[in-house]
Amino acid sequence: MIDEVQGSMSVFMVIYMISHLAFAQGFYFISLASKKKKYQFATSYLTAIQYSFFTALGEYSYYPQFEDSRNSMRWLGMGLFMLCCVLTTVVMLNLLIAIISDKYNEVSAMAHLYMY
């Protein structure tokens, strides 16, 4: 049972990491598109990955540059930030629960084969 759940979890982790890399790329491009240097919050792709990961962990006070009304990328940045918050927390958690419950149902249906 553990092996089957672990196989499904590896698929989930690949999907989860792809979503983080996609959001990191979005944060990086928004940072590069900002005209002023003080609004460029992600100076490297690694920093953008950190922003995406910390957003998924619930670090919401990490984005003061989106609150400044003089930032031309403010609305796009806040939209991407909100989408990242919702997608990485709610949708991915539901996907994880669905994968684990599906594997549990498959294993419990075949329980007579796994008994010694």
List the helices and strands and how they pair.
Blueprint: H1 2-33, H2 45-57, H3 74-109, H4 111-114
Helix pairs in contact: 1-2, 1-3, 2-3
Written overview of the protein:
The chain has 116 residues and is an all-alpha fold. The protein has a single domain, classed as Helix Hairpins, CATH 1.10.287. Helix content is 73%, strand content 0%. It is built from four helices and no strands. Helix 1 packs antiparallel against helix 3 (74-109). The protein is elongated and about 65 Å long.
Nutshell version of this structure?
The protein has one domain: Helix Hairpins (Orthogonal Bundle).
Q: From N to C, what is the helix and strand string?
A: HHHH
Helix content: over 70%
Q: Identify the overall geometry.
A: elongated
Given as residue ranges, the uncertain stretches (5+ residues, pLDDT < 50) are: none
How many individual helices? 4
Report the CATH topology name. Answer: Helix Hairpins
CATH class: Mainly Alpha
Distance between the termini: 14 Å
Q: How many DSSP-defined strands?
A: 0
Q: Under the CATH scheme, which architecture would be assigned?
A: Orthogonal Bundle
**Strand percentage:** under 5%
Number of domains: 1
Summed over residues and divided by their number, the pLDDT gives a mean of: 82
Radius of gyration: 19 Å
What characteristics describe this protein?
about 120 residues, mainly alpha, Helix Hairpins, 4 helices, elongated
